[in-house]
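Onboarding guide, step 5: your first structure request.
Type a short instruction followed by the sequence, for example:

Predict the 3D structure of this protein.
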Amino acid sequence: MVPVVMYCTATCPYCQRAERLLRERGVRDIEKIRVDLDPERRAEMIRKCGRRSVPQIWIGGQHVGGCDDLEAIEHAGRLDELLAE
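The system replies with structure tokens like these:
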């Protein structure tokens, strides 16, 4: 399975929802970068994708967006394929 990186905070319900979906799809290892603990990491996230909200998710080095974007990929039937690349 490809690497998954998620910029997140501890209390964000969208972060929790995205993580739950990824776990349901068999992802066991998610590199979670807590932007609430380290403001520099939030700045890094913004530089990388231009977005301020969390979660921001990368699958296999490709930015897929936030929770709504991840769910849209799932509903389109492309998430399993993306995770397997």
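Each response can be followed by summary notes, for example: The radius of gyration is 12 Å.
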